[in-house]
Amino acid sequence: MDTMLLSLRGIYKWVNTGINRTFLLKDINLDIGEGEFVSVMGPSGSGKSTLLNVIGMLDDFDEGAYHFMGDAVQGLREKQRAALYKQYIGFVFQAYHLIDELTVYENIETPLLYKGIKTPERKAMVADMLDRFNIVGKKDLFPTQLSGGQQQLVGIARALIGGPKLLLADEPTGNLNSKQGEEIMELFQQLNRDGVTIIQVTHSEKNAEYGSRIIHLLDAHVEKK
Q1: Which CATH code is given to the segment(s) 36-59+77-211?
Q2: Which has more pLDDT, 122 or 113?
Q3: Is the distance from CB of 21 to CB of 14 less than 8 angstroms?
């Protein structure tokens, strides 16, 4: 395994309702090395998306230790955490999460605005992404004018524009037909070859096979093989 990118130790996340405690994640121990492509599988409600959100620092956890690139995430203030994930983590969601009021160009540009990148550099970076994903002709359209596959490409372009070390994908082909889904998975494989670490949540055995290893979740914990 290459250099360690992240490690989770004894991670618990729960919700309390009255006297009952429901575990969303239970004693998760996981190491991910730089350059890995990991698929996370498991039935609905097993904690897959929650795990992804904890890794992506979108969700807190209640117990345990999380180290990302050597930083103890649980010891960081919210602002420091936000800075960390904006710099190093890209997200691709099943529901695309594009901003309907913004054009394709503006959607892709958004992460660069957060980073305070100057206009000429932004323009060059967005142009490069539009070109790379073959969507130059779509740059002035709005998300609702695109097909599902095109929207997902825009979502991936937006996730990648900041040059993340880690790409987190939650059912990235869930709303796509099989041909579009295959194209997206082949794209992920290429990105991984280019050095991007990828963690994907998927229901599809076929998509999971693109990864270099598969982690199975069941009832909020990692199944031991």
Answers
A1: 3.40.50.300
A2: 122
A3: yes
Domain ranges of the chain: 36-59+77-211
What is residue 209's three-state secondary structure?
Answer: coil
Distance CA 96, CA 121 (A): 25
At 62 the three-state DSSP class reads coil
From start to end of the chain, where are the E strands? Answer: 4-17, 20-33, 37-41, 63-68, 71-72, 89-92, 166-170, 197-201, 213-218, 221-222
Query: Which positions ≥6 away from 68 have C-beta within 8 Å?
Result: 5, 6, 57, 84, 88
pTM of this prediction exceeds 0.85: yes
Sign of torsion over alpha carbons 186, 192, 196, 199? positive
Average pLDDT over residues 17-42: 94
Q: Nearest Cα to 57, choosing from 99, 15, 11?
A: 11
